[in-house]
Predict the 3D structure of the following.
Amino acid sequence: MKTVTILGATGSVGTSTLDLIEREPERFRVLALTANCDVPKLAAAAIRTRAELAVVADETCLPALREALHGTNIRAAAGKQAIDDTAAMGADWTMAAIVGCAGLRPVMAAIERGGTVVLANKEPLVAAGDIILAAAKRSGATLLPADSEHNAIFQCLDATRPDRVRRIILTGSGGPFRDWPIERMRSVTVAQAVAHPNWSMGAKISVDSATMMNKGLELIEAARLFAVESNRIEIVVHRQSVIHSMVDYIDGSMLAQLGPSDMRVPIAHTLAWPDRMATPMQPLDLVALGRLDFEAPDPVRFPALRLAREALDAGGARPAILNAANEVAVAAFLSGRIGFLEIAAIVGDTLACYDPPAPDTLDAVLAIDAEARALAAERVRATTTASVEDRVV
Ligand code: NDP
């Protein structure tokens, strides 16, 4: 029996992971589940799976969690340190599905403890890739990618012969605005931005998909995970989201992984790896599907792609700044403070005004992350003030 911990159990990836685990209770035993503060969902999942421990990051939510777990023998805990301690409990298999850089310390704690750590949470890899990979090397932890693109690459890549790989081709749906003219993109609403055409996901990654920053973050994630230079990773818009990515070999063979647009497929791959397990997904009906389309992404309407590639190429602190500024800008967009096109503009401005030396420790990454957030928040305030003044004029 595999022991399992899910960090971010109440989110979209967490829910998909629970769905698979609960279908095979004889195969998986839940050690711990964590959330920020969604107590009803966390407590219900902990009770259903007979978890040993349920943890909320937000300490003000602990009384509600204790009350919801009253009468069970599930322990409750709260706070950032409790999340880190939970990550380090030593589960055989840990799903890292907290959103954003809030997952960085827990991911490191899980990796330092060893076992299998499954990365859905891409932001820590973007901000602190080298540090995370070095920690995995030291502890012997196995890192498996749950992000569908990286999981596809992992399935297609012959890691024993990296010199035989010509290119990695990252596919992306292009998001809900792939066909919109830029004038129309200025007035995108939150509801439009989070309505992804193919995938059902949390709000932050849905907005990232709409700006295509998600593909930029994935570019950096792929370069880190598979040790491939940026100029050998190509991004292709594939609107059906059936091919999840491809590996192109020097002999002209191109291997692709296909599957339904449902995170349970890549998560199942990591749960059973190196074996396979059944999922409730229907097999792809290629005849009904009929066609697969591919096109180049538009760098003008989606400047986040350029910003991410430049950050990857420059290295050092640049990816951490890109990620932090993006998190702040996306949160500002989601709360209605800035427009959709301002997200990438704020990321670009933050990168332009802050250029610290490369971080070599986790604390240095977190300090850069904090400073970049402060600068981006300042830029958000300036944008908000300017638009209020425009309205008054
Ligand atoms: P969601 O927003 O749906 O869920 C986020 C989870 O993290 C929730 O459990 C939330 O708890 C918890 N959380 C939020 N803030 C904190 C915090 N400060 N401390 C601890 N826990 C916190 O996100 P997704 O599931 O969509 O995405 C999770 C990660 O996986 C992201 O990095 C995303 O990029 C990546 N990913 C997601 C995919 C998807 O299909 N959704 C696909 C590939 C990658 P609460 O519910 O209490 O707020």
In short: The chain has a mean pLDDT of 96. The chain is about 50% helix and 15% strand.
